[in-house]
Design goal:
This protein is an alpha+beta fold and 196 residues long. It has helices at residues 52-70, 112-127, 152-180, 183-193; strands at residues 4-10, 13-20, 34-42, 48-50, 76-78, 82-86, 91-96, 106-111. Helix content is 38%, strand content 24%. Strand 6 (82-86) and strand 7 (91-96) form a beta hairpin.
């Protein structure tokens, strides 16, 4: 049986998913529900490939790591399969550990643009109607403390504090004119200019 191939591209990164439709669920022939292999190509880097059980942890690692970067927390992610650490603001070190014995880990250094392009490929995969990924295969769950959204209290303050500061500064700025503006002086000046 010929397997289907779907590719997701973003500038310097490309993700290829290889698999079959699940005919027991009446899926069309172009669908992929049974993923047998995937390949991630990043510009000027060695090919990364594996089975479905490897794809989930790697996607999770990239998502969690990027969330840490966005939230200005210490950008370190470590697991049995992949480690990602920031070397500096622009370079990220990725260590991919093989599940096979006696295979040396693969070390990659990627910049912000390559990191962003790779995550974009993962996003395209998640949003594709042609690929159905079982939740048990790829459990993309990010810890609550690592999600993009902040807690309700912080959201409340972020929403109301800027307008409150703006109103206070406007009142303070306006009240300063009271000390410099005297309506009586203007009346006297008017009388001197045009006496009746």
């Amino acid at each position: 049986m010929i397997q289907n191939k779907l590719s997701f591209h973003q500038s310097s990164a490309s993700l290829e998913i290889i698999g079959l439709p699940d005919y027991s669920n009446n899926e069309i022939k172009d669908q992929i529900s049974i993923i047998s292999q995937w390949k991630l190509t990043i510009a000027d880097k060695p090919l990364i490939e594996g089975k479905i059980e490897h794809l989930g942890p790697i996607m999770n690692a990239f998502y969690i790591y990027s969330n840490l970067l966005i939230k200005n927390e210490i950008p370190i992610y470590e697991s049995k399969l992949i480690d990602i650490k920031a070397e500096n603001l622009h370079i990220h070190n990725i260590l991919l550990k093989s599940s096979k014995p006696n295979v040396k880990p693969l070390v990659l250094k990627i910049g912000n643009s390559l990191l962003s392009d790779t995550i974009n490929c993962f996003d395209q995969l998640n949003e594709s109607p042609k690929v159905r990924i079982k939740k048990t295969d790829i459990p993309i769950k990010i810890a609550k403390k690592l999600r993009f959204g902040l807690n309700k209290n912080v959201k409340f303050f972020n929403f109301f504090i800027p307008p409150f500061i703006a109103i206070c500064s406007l009142i303070l700025f306006s009240s300063s004119f009271i000390y410099f503006y005297s309506p009586f002086e203007n009346i006297e000046k008017k009388e001197l200019i045009s006496p009746e």
